[in-house]
Amino acid sequence: MKSHFVILMVPFLMFSASCKKDPEGPKQPVAINLPAKGDAVVAKNNEFGINLFRTTALAEDKNLMLSPLSASTALTMLLNGCNTATYEQVRDMLGYEGLTTDEINEVYKSLVTQLLAADPEVQLALANAVWYRQDFQVKPPFLESMDASFDAEIAALDFFSPSALTTINNWAKDNTNGKIEKVLDEISPDAVMFLMNALYFKGNWTYQFKKDQTADAPFYPENGNMLNVKTMRSQIPVKIHNGSRAIAAEMPYGRQNFAMVLILPEGKLSDFLPGFDGQEWAEITAGLDAIQEPSKVEMVMPKFKFDFEKILNDQLKELGMIDAFNPYQADLSGISDQQIFVSFVKQNTFVDVNEEGTEAAAVTTIGIDLTSLPSEFVVNKPFIFAIRERMTNSLLFIGKVERPEY
What we know:
Blueprint: H1 2-9, E1 13-14, H2 38-57, H3 68-79, H4 84-94, H5 101-117, E2 123-133, H6 140-150, E3 153-157, H7 162-174, E4 191-204, E5 215-219, E6 227-242, E7 246-253, E8 258-265, H8 269-272, H9 278-289, E9 295-302, E10 304-311, H10 313-318, E11 340-353, E12 357-370, E13 383-389, E14 394-401
Parallel strand pairs: 2-3
Antiparallel strand pairs: 1-9, 2-4, 4-12, 5-6, 6-7, 6-9, 7-8, 10-11, 11-12, 13-14
C-alpha cells in the first residue's frame, strides 16, 4: 500500500527542504461574522455538499465538478415553497434542523453578502432567478421571499415561445461570464417554474506558477496507461496536512480568504470515495487551519479544464429528498395551490485551473412541473383487483394476481 502511495505522489507533490517565509507576504484574510447558528449551518451545508459529491462521483467514471454552494442556494429557495413532509426532507438534507425558514434565509443572506465582499482581488458573483409561466399563479409571499432574501430576478415568461428558452439560457451565460452558455435544451409543456442559481469565481493564486516551467509529465490513471499531461511546477508556500487516509495541500487565492484544497488518497481514489464524508472533510480542513505558516515546497500538479453536466435527482433522493420529486406526494403549496412537483435538479459546471489561478462557474436549475395524469398505465407485475358498487362503495370482490392465467 505504502509503495503505491509513493508512486502516486511523485507526479503530484514534491517537497523541498526550504521553509523560508515570503519576504513580503500576502494580505491576511478578512473575518466573516455570521448570525447565531451560522457556523453550524455552514458545517451542515458542507456535509450535504460532500455527500452530494460522493454519491455523484461513485456513479461517474469521468472528471466531474459540483458546486455545493450553488446547489444549496437553489434548494434553499425551493425550501421556501415547501410544506409538511416535503419541507422536512429538504430541510434535514441541507442540515437546517431546528431553524425556522426566516432564520435559514437570514444566515444565507449574511453569508452571501460577506462572501461577495471578502476579497476584492477575487471575482466572485452569485445570482438567483425565478422564471414562471405567465399563466401560472404564484403565491405572493413566495415571490416576496425570493426578492427580499435571495435578491432574485423574477419574471413571468411565455414558456411556449422560443424567446423564453433564450432568456433563461442567456441569463445563465451572462451570470457565468460566458462559461456556461446553455442549461436547457427545451421547456416541457408541463413546466411552470424554474428556480436558478448561478455562481462565478475567478481568482489568481496568491503564489503563481511560472509558465516557463510547465511541461509534459507523467500522470497515472487508476484504470489505463500512463499519460503525459501539461504539468505546472513551482516552489511556493503551501500548507500540507497528513491525514489518516490522505494527504492534503492548500493553495490560497488573492488575500487568502479563498483557497483550493487538493486531496491525494493514500491508495486508490475509488477506495477512498465510499468513506469520504463531511466529518473527514472537517478533519482535513481543521488540520490545515491548525498550520500557522505554510512551508515552501516544490508544487507539481497538472493543468486541467473541463465542463460537466448532471441531473441530480437520483443523488438527492438517496440523500433524503424524496417526496419533492413525486408528482402525487410533493407539497410545494408555498409556491402555488396547484399540484406541482420538482421534475429535475440539474447542475452545469465549468473549471479551468492554470498557472495564473482558477476560473470556475456553476448553474443549478430546479424545474417545477404541473402534475399531470400518466400517459399510460402498465400492469406488468403482481397486482390487486377489486369490484365495487360505486354509489354505496360496497365491495363485491377483491383479489390479487401473482401469475396471470387464462
